[in-house]
């Protein structure tokens, strides 16, 4: 035993590895997640400083505290031989769920293990504990498994302590959900219950990040006696890191926790906001997690129960869990530092959360000072895997590239001195200016299909797309839609894209050719919206500090015919082309550079037929726009896809 006397419980059980996707061994929620964590804890020897326990299956009566009987029957029986081949069909009825013959046992172990450590911490037998469990739980709702989650482990343990063990004196529970996704299931289960303060910080991206919609919004504060006991901090974009999370801790969570005075804290500890996570796109370091956890140790006499939720980069989750257990043992953060300031959007979100909750929590009533909120890191655009229009990279290389870019750019800013509270405040006045200018955006690819184009304005996802779009800040629909043909060559290139999967995407040859006739759908939108589309076509986020294509570009493009959006020059569609005027307004489109044509011709970048889903969207657009019949549209696309450049 080490010199400290903290009794930290640790639960791990191999049987939870029997749950996996039978059709996809690379599914992100796979057994290697907890195996890699356990391997790390063993190799570092930290497990020997903890009290290690085996998993324990939950009882139906405890699960029934938060789930319906129908839900419990489903999970109990899903792995039985009788269900057999019907299993996949049942799974398909739910959102992001798979089942196999090991699912039932793993679900019961996962829930039961969290109950077990929570009970021991509440009893005082342990000071704190970490349950290395899967499947995760926080998306699971009362009557529905969801988002890789079967039973809501943390919610079950919470109700167990309150309702089944009143003798332990636990009356108020703080749940901190720092998984990068919103804990929709937990929120709903405790919506009107003031015994539980539910706090979730997550990517929301204005409702387009999983699980999506309004549930994760900061206006969702609970109801009835539970009003004010539900706190959501919704990030507007990815790439949030230590500084952003710690700002939320200091200016929302910690002041409220002080006031609430929990008897125990349960953490829905997902590590998919960690640097390098393929789904999260945020950048919290192990050091960041250790400080977040350490700040919570001052409450409830340090009674903290952590339960694993998401986290899909094996190295990141292992390092982050190790750091957290170190904090539980040592009662201090691990060595490290994080110097960068929060994003400007982070302060905006924090202030909005405080405004919304100040009626319930007095410490939030005071406005943040300008001195505090002026300490920001400019938002830097980085090519990410959201776009159909960037070079294909695996999640791993994306994160490495992102790291490199971020380090290069953030480092200089981290040394920035803040004087008179006006260091690098970000102005969005360009949006107001460009929102008054109308242009025609001429589309030749899947954007000809209105529903698909509207994803770039309102946010959303149409059939075949692998991920939803964020949308424009200005969500007003196009003022007019017209069709025209242009003397340009339409062709398809690249082998696969992040948005559509395998298959080529459409390009317009930047040079005109009177032998060609490309059908194009023209949307009348503002220049501000055009910038948001241009950004989404090339990179994923839109917190632009300055426009990609501004008034000067607009004035010069008539003469120069094309202008490169240099800030997104790694994207495939950063070359803005001028195609003339319609009703006095300029017609703009975006495509590859002329120099890319040589790469397509030489075979350096393959020309390639579009995927079925992608082609269908083009055809739908042409038919819906009454330009061609379905047969004609199909032939038009096939012909464009098969002709040599
Ligand atoms: Zn998650």
Describe the structure.
35% of the residues lie in helices and 15% in strands. With 645 residues, it is α/β, with parallel strands linked by helices. The protein has 2 domains: 366 residues, Arginase, Chain A; 211 residues, Hypothetical upf0131 protein ytfp (Roll). It has an 8-stranded parallel beta sheet with strand order 2-1-3-8-7-4-5-6, sandwiched between helices. Helix 7 links the parallel strand 4 and strand 5. Helix 5 packs across helix 6 and helix 8 runs parallel beside helix 11. The protein is globular, with a radius of gyration of 26 Å. The structure holds zinc ion. Zinc ion binds next to loops.
Summarize the structure.
The protein has 645 residues and is of the alpha/beta class. 35% of the residues lie in helices and 15% in strands.
Keywords:
single chain; Arginase, Chain A; alpha/beta; six-stranded mixed sheet; binds zinc ion; 18 strands; eight-stranded parallel sheet
Instruction: Report the CATH architecture of the largest domain.
Output: 3-Layer(aba) Sandwich
Task: Give me the oligomer status.
Answer: single chain
Residues in helix, %: 25-40%
Report the radius of gyration as a whole number of Å.
26 Å
CATH fold field value of the largest domain = Arginase, Chain A
Topology (SSEs and partners):
Elements: E1 8-11, H1 32-44, E2 51-53, H2 60-63, H3 69-77, H4 87-92, H5 103-123, E3 128-131, H6 153-164, E4 173-177, H7 184-189, E5 196-203, E6 230-235, H8 242-260, E7 264-269, H9 286-296, E8 304-308, H10 314-330, H11 344-357, H12 370-373, H13 395-414, H14 429-434, E9 438-443, H15 450-458, E10 481-486, E11 488-493, E12 496-497, E13 501-502, E14 505-512, E15 518-526, H16 527-538, H17 551-560, E16 562-564, E17 575-582, E18 585-591, H18 594-602, H19 612-624, H20 630-642
Parallel strand pairs: 1-2, 1-3, 3-8, 4-5, 4-7, 5-6, 7-8, 9-18
Antiparallel strand pairs: 9-15, 10-15, 11-14, 12-13, 16-17, 17-18
Helix pairs in contact: 1-10, 5-6, 8-9, 8-11, 9-10, 19-20
């Amino acid at each position: 035993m080490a010199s400290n006397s903290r009794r930290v419980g640790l639960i791990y059980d191999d049987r939870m590895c029997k749950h996996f996707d039978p059709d996809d061994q690379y599914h992100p929620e796979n057994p290697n997640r907890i195996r890699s964590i356990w391997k790390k804890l063993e190799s570092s020897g930290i497990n020997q400083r903890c009290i290690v326990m085996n998993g324990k299956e939950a009882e139906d009566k405890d699960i029934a505290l938060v789930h319906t009987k129908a839900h419990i029957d489903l999970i109990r029986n899903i792995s039985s031989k009788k269900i057999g081949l019907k299993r996949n069909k049942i799974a398909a009825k739910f959102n992001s769920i798979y089942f196999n013959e090991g699912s039932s046992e793993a679900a019961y172990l996962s829930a039961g293990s969290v109950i077990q450590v929570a009970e021991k911490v509440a009893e005082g037998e342990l000071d704190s504990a970490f349950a290395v469990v899967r499947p995760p739980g926080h998306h699971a709702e009362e009557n529905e498994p969801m988002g890789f989650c079967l039973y809501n482990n943390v919610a079950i343990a919470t109700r167990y302590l309150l309702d089944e063990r009143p003798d332990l004196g636990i009356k108020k529970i703080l749940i901190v959900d720092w998984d990068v996704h919103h804990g929709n299931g937990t929120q709903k289960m405790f919506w009107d219950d003031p015994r539980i303060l539910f706090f979730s910080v997550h990517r929301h991206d204005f409702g387009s990040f999983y699980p999506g919609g309004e549930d994760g919004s900061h206006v969702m504060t609970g109801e009835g006696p539970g009003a004010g006991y539900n706190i959501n901090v919704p990030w507007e974009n990815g790439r949030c890191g230590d500084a952003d999370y710690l700002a939320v801790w200091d200016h929302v969570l910690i002041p409220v926790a002080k006031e609430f005075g929990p008897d125990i804290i349960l953490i829905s500890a997902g590590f998919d906001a960690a640097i390098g996570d393929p789904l999260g796109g945020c950048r919290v370091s192990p050091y960041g997690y250790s400080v977040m956890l350490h700040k919570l140790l001052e409450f409830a006499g340090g009674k903290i129960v952590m339960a694993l939720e998401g986290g899909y980069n094996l190295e990141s989750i292992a390092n982050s869990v190790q750091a957290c257990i170190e904090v539980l043992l040592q009662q201090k953060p691990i060595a490290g530092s994080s110097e960068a300031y929060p994003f400007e959007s982070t302060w905006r979100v924090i202030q909005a959360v405080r405004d919304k909750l100040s009626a319930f929590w007095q410490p939030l009533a005071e406005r943040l000072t300008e001195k505090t909120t002026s300490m920001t890191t400019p938002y830097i655009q980085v090519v990410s895997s959201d776009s159909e229009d960037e070079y294909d990279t695996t999640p791993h290389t994306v994160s490495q590239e992102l790291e490199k870019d971020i380090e290069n750019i953030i480092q200089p800013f981290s040394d920035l001195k803040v004087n008179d509270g006006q260091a690098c405040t970000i102005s969005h006045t360009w949006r107001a200016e460009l929102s008054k200018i109308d242009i025609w955006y001429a589309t030749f690819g899947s954007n000809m299909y209105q529903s698909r184009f509207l994803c770039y304005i309102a946010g959303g996802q149409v059939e075949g797309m692998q991920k939803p779009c964020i949308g424009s800040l200005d969500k007003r629909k196009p003022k007019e839609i017209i069709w025209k043909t242009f003397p340009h060559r339409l062709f398809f290139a690249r082998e696969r894209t992040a948005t559509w999967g395998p298959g080529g995407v459409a390009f317009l040859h930047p040079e005109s050719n009177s032998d060609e006739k490309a059908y194009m759908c023209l949307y009348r939108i503002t220049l501000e919206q055009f910038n948001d589309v241009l950004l989404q076509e090339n990179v994923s986020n839109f917190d632009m500090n300055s426009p990609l294509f501004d008034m000067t570009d607009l004035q010069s493009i008539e003469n120069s015919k094309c202008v490169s959006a240099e800030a997104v020059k790694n994207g495939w569609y950063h070359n803005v082309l001028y195609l003339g005027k319609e009703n006095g307004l300029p017609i703009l489109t975006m495509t590859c550079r002329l120099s890319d044509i040589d790469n397509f011709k030489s075979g350096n970048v393959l020309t390639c037929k579009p995927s079925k889903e992608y082609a269908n969207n083009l055809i739908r657009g042409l038919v819906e726009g009454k330009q061609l019949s379905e047969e004609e549209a199909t032939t038009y696309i096939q012909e464009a896809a098969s002709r040599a450049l």
